[in-house]
Amino acid sequence: MRHTTTSTQASTPGPAQSSAWTPAALRRAMGAGDPAALADAWQVGRYLWPALRALGYDGGYLGRRGANSDALAGRPPHLRTLGTPPGYLSFVAMLPPAPGHDRIRLHRQGADLPRLPEHRGQLDVVLQDVPFKQSPATAQQAQALAEYGTKALTEGVVLSARGGISVSLVHTQVLDSPDPTGRKRLARQADLVGALRLPPRPGPDGAGVPFDVVLLRRRSSGARGTGHPFTDICAVPLGDQLVTVNEYFTTHPDHVLSRVLPGPGGSALLVPEADRARLGRRIQEAFTRIGGTATQRRLTAPGFLSPPTPDLPSTQDARRPADARPHDDVHL
Fold it and tell me: What per-residue string of b and e applies to 79-104 under the rule 16 or more CB within 10 Å gives b?
């Protein structure tokens, strides 16, 4: 996700050191321990969970990946274990039966979840805080960011059960990259439930980088896609210039949670938002809209009884037990 700019470490290559970041370098640049990034993950998680529960994701297995995945899961930052060094976290836990994610106990720290076959295709909810380099990027580096983030989104789908949902905090280039290849691969296996584009925080060294919250639901075998289109980008007028943005945000401009200005190379820049309480209210409202639309499109948890609509009568799909779920057929 977005991280506040910090001093460059020797092990973290910057634009002057490398023309393109390797996955290993990107992982080192995740900004673990950044209090602003931790606060952003906690704020998203705080408003995310009511929306997920409204879609029927109120039980089963939860998997988490990323430096601030515990905060994204709704576990308050003050409950972090004292003395635990910040780093890339991977956990599997049971979803608590009621709100109050201070009850989530952190397990299986260490091995990353996609490396563990027993979790592939078995998790009901996957939360990912995907790292990315916090500095201006060249065209090559921007493409590396897009590929790295798309791979992480794919891994979230791989871990999800049929009808399970993955929620990822990623760099905006993942959805806005001119190359749609990775997004098209994702669209063959998963539906876009919704997305939010959050503005950066202002800082003494300049504004940070915005980030996206992307919700993907793994499609059931043989089911037709009912998610939002997200594979293409569009050129939209902004003042006397054209900027390129993912097609989802052109049809849902209210999910871009800040004023947009034209940037270099046809990119869109988000005005930093210092009032994070106001931003929190906008996040809450946007998640409510996403949940309402997802219910109408039947992008809900398996077994969830959706309210009837004029074109979609009420139905209830049978939830399969974990041991009856099919083997994963999405390849990394």
Answer: eeeeeeeeebbbbbbebbeeeebeeb
276: confidence class by pLDDT, cuts 50, 70, 90? confident
Q: What is the DSSP letter of 239?
A: T
Q: Rounded to two decimals, what is the model's pTM? A: 0.81
CA distances to 66, 106, 108, 310 from 61, rounded to whole Å, are: 17, 13, 13, 33
Helix (H, G, I), strand (E, B) or coil at 167: strand
In sequence order, what are the residues at sequence separation of 6 or more whose Cβ sits closer than 8 angstroms to the Cβ of residue 83?
Answer: none
Taking the C-alpha atoms of residue 191 and residue 177, their distance in angstroms, rounded to an integer, is 19
Decide: helix, strand or coil at residue 182: helix
Contacts of 101 (CB under 8 A, 6+ apart): 45, 49, 73, 74, 75, 76
pLDDT of 259 > 60? The answer is yes
Residue count of the chain = 332
Three-state DSSP class for 13? Answer: coil
Tell me how crowded residue 211 is: count the other CB atoms within 10 A of its CB: 29
Tokens encoding 234: 């569009």
Query: Residue 328's pLDDT is what?
Result: 39
Cα 325 to Cα 22, 128, 176, 321, distances in angstroms:
35, 22, 33, 7
Region 154-181: what's the mean pLDDT?
Answer: 94
pLDDT of 329 > 60? The answer is no
Q: How far apart are CA 122 and CA 167, in angstroms?
A: 15
* CA nearest to 80, candidates 68, 88, 95: 68
Signed CA dihedral, 85, 83, 112, 303: sign only: negative
